[in-house]
Amino acid sequence: MTNRTIEIAQIMRKLRNRHVRTERDEELQTALHRLFEVGEDGIITHEPVRFTAGQETNGIAFIEGSGGGKTTAIFKVLEGFAPLAKNPETGAPRRIHVKVEAPATLRSVGISFLRQLGVDHISDRAKVYDIWSMVRTRLEVLGVTLVWIDEAQDLFRATTPEESDTVFRMLKGLMQGDNPVVLILSGTERLGRMTSIDPQVDRRFLKVRPTDLAFGADNDQVQMLVESYARLAGLEVDIDPGLINRLIYGARFRFGRVIVTLVEAIEMALYAGDIALTVNHFAESWGRREGCEIMQNVFLVEDFLSIDVGLDDMREAPAESPSKKARKRKKAA
After folding, report:
1. How far is the C-alpha of 43 from the C-alpha of 189, rounded, in Å?
2. Alpha helices of the chain — where are they, by DSSP H?
3. Closest C-alpha to 253, from 68, 127, 3
4. In what side-by-side order are the strands of the sheet with 59-63?
5. Structure pTM?
6. What digits encode the pLDDT tens for the residues 212-268?
7. Number of H helices, E strands in the chain
8. CA distance linking residue 228 with residue 222, whole number of Å
9. Which residues is 208 bridged to in the sheet?
10. How far apart are the C-alpha atoms of 47 and 146, rounded to whole Å?
């Protein structure tokens, strides 16, 4: 490995580790602060605020399309939330992060919880009820007061009406009892549609819904991002103002995708030994990731808006309520 290769790798690590705070971070941080008690000394604590006459906690539903940057935003906000940083009795954080892996079942999700809580072996004979009882016990023993379930829409992707109701009861159960937790659910628009089916679940969650990028309104911000990232990499910027619209469109109007495309374009420029970031670097990086032909590359085609880049959440079928699904099955029978 040459010195130049090592230097580029270090630059890329710095760029990928950089986090740009946006309104989504501020909104999430504000919501988080509302859900934890403030002590008599005026300092926020790890104790969840109890609602409904002290019977339950509330949570946060962070809803955004794929590639928006929600996972990074949540990671960064939780890292900066001092009350959950460390339990002095265990030396571990007072929060856990569980990513739902599709296809998901209550059993598989419960096992993922237990692994995050230090339980590596679960008997194949263990019943779902026993697994979730163990989850609640471990949360209490370890002093965990916040649980983040990522890709939470996949909890409902292949469930029957009865199974959906069971998932809703599980979510409510974590937020009730003697040691309830604050729950963060993050996922795509499907998550928002599913949680709204159960009013008791829906009312427990503050909603964070970052807006997509828009032509014109966000061009200056994206332009500044391009220039600041290029500057960190030691590059000049030689692009036409119209490239910003192409970048936003190619990123499906998602902030996180803009960052990914920008960083990969910079990588192309660095390995090419160029001194300036140009449209050709964006075209090459976007084309490789999309696997498209030249005539389907938004950075090369004059009428780039004619290219169908696809909008991820538009492809999701609208969620149906468990009762509606049941009526359809009854009719079919």
Report:
1. 35
2. 3-17, 23-34, 70-79, 106-116, 128-142, 161-174, 189-195, 199-202, 219-232, 243-250, 255-272, 279-290, 322-332
3. 68
4. 95-99, 146-150, 182-187, 59-63, 205-208
5. 0.86
6. 999 999 999 999 999 999 999 999 999 999 999 999 999 999 999 999 999 999 999
7. 13, 9
8. 10
9. 62
10. 9
